[in-house]
């Protein structure tokens, strides 16, 4: 088989690494890819949003399967473009990817089908939002309706912060058109857990649990980022929690989308909050999480290509999804200043230290070649992942592996998975 992967981050590197293990596959392309993905795939000078060019390439080169890693092309309708050309593609169509593309849509869906989530209101104008906040309880959560690279969520402790947040999102358009609508949500407390799942339109199979760390600084301080690290499994995701979610959240979401005429095939990422009243949905994503993919895929026993094909063909019920009985931790190495301002083009040293070391991986997020040298090319540069027999061992291994790599202005959190010690 020939497989095309759409995207350029650490998630797509993890997907390419996993696809490369499939005995079915003998050629991988990635558009546009990065320096790490180039080890497994031929990287193409086509961006993720050039749907017609991507589809034409897939057709001309007899690509058997395309896997879309990123949210923007999914929400933009890349799957519809490929299917119109008779091409096999893994991911939700545009009318289903709205589950991630519009927070207002997803909240309304949960309300309609009684899927547990936080109370909320939706606003189309800053004036209406500000009027509502005058009588609101704090803390409170503001969410840009559209895609904002995982950063369009503000937790406001008081009215002044909330007013400034409305200004940032709706007036100043800090997140662009994503802020044309605003969701204001009750603040929930508890442990956050990420659960990724495969969906074929009717059947859903969940992957192992994980937990992301969104804030830039140690102790969950600083600005929101795309994710500074993650661990899997979550010790807080118990059998009791799993039973509740299967009954009231997972299948209910798939069925709700089907009833709305928005059949969902691909990945649904459930961002959950484990509250005193039980699990609640924080958000949905319509693709693998990044960096969650970097700890979930290394623990997955199945052939990823086979599972993707089963989802496309509506045969997921025939798949026995299995994960290793161990743990994994990923620490993101970023450039100092991320997520605001940072330097690019800095040479990366020590990548060769991962060669031949079983259970240790380095997934490239923002890298490129400068001649023969691999240099930094983004805020999040690398995801250093390690496995271990349990979470504490995996965490120790990951932080040991962080020392193997260096580049100027290297920055990372020192407390990824620290919650493990408290479990």
From TrEMBL:
<dbReference type="InterPro" id="IPR020560">
    <property type="entry name" value="PRibGlycinamide_synth_C-dom"/>
</dbReference>
<dbReference type="Pfam" id="PF02844">
    <property type="entry name" value="GARS_N"/>
</dbReference>
<keyword id="KW-0479">Metal-binding</keyword>
<dbReference type="InterPro" id="IPR016185">
    <property type="entry name" value="PreATP-grasp_dom_sf"/>
</dbReference>
<dbReference type="InterPro" id="IPR000115">
    <property type="entry name" value="PRibGlycinamide_synth"/>
</dbReference>
<keyword id="KW-0547">Nucleotide-binding</keyword>
<dbReference type="InterPro" id="IPR037123">
    <property type="entry name" value="PRibGlycinamide_synth_C_sf"/>
</dbReference>
<dbReference type="Pfam" id="PF02843">
    <property type="entry name" value="GARS_C"/>
</dbReference>
<dbReference type="GO" id="GO:0004637">
    <property type="term" value="F:phosphoribosylamine-glycine ligase activity"/>
</dbReference>
<keyword id="KW-0067">ATP-binding</keyword>
<dbReference type="InterPro" id="IPR013815">
    <property type="entry name" value="ATP_grasp_subdomain_1"/>
</dbReference>
<dbReference type="InterPro" id="IPR020561">
    <property type="entry name" value="PRibGlycinamid_synth_ATP-grasp"/>
</dbReference>
<comment type="pathway">
    <text>Purine metabolism; IMP biosynthesis via de novo pathway; N(1)-(5-phospho-D-ribosyl)glycinamide from 5-phospho-alpha-D-ribose 1-diphosphate: step 2/2.</text>
</comment>
<protein>
    <recommendedName>
        <fullName>Phosphoribosylamine--glycine ligase</fullName>
        <ecNumber>6.3.4.13</ecNumber>
    </recommendedName>
</protein>
<dbReference type="Pfam" id="PF01071">
    <property type="entry name" value="GARS_A"/>
</dbReference>
<dbReference type="InterPro" id="IPR020562">
    <property type="entry name" value="PRibGlycinamide_synth_N"/>
</dbReference>
<keyword id="KW-0436">Ligase</keyword>
<keyword id="KW-0464">Manganese</keyword>
<keyword id="KW-0658">Purine biosynthesis</keyword>
<dbReference type="GO" id="GO:0006189">
    <property type="term" value="P:'de novo' IMP biosynthetic process"/>
</dbReference>
<dbReference type="InterPro" id="IPR011761">
    <property type="entry name" value="ATP-grasp"/>
</dbReference>
<dbReference type="GO" id="GO:0009113">
    <property type="term" value="P:purine nucleobase biosynthetic process"/>
</dbReference>
<feature type="domain" description="ATP-grasp">
    <location>
        <begin position="107"/>
        <end position="313"/>
    </location>
</feature>
<dbReference type="InterPro" id="IPR011054">
    <property type="entry name" value="Rudment_hybrid_motif"/>
</dbReference>
<dbReference type="GO" id="GO:0046872">
    <property type="term" value="F:metal ion binding"/>
</dbReference>
<comment type="similarity">
    <text>Belongs to the GARS family.</text>
</comment>
<dbReference type="InterPro" id="IPR020559">
    <property type="entry name" value="PRibGlycinamide_synth_CS"/>
</dbReference>
<dbReference type="GO" id="GO:0005524">
    <property type="term" value="F:ATP binding"/>
</dbReference>
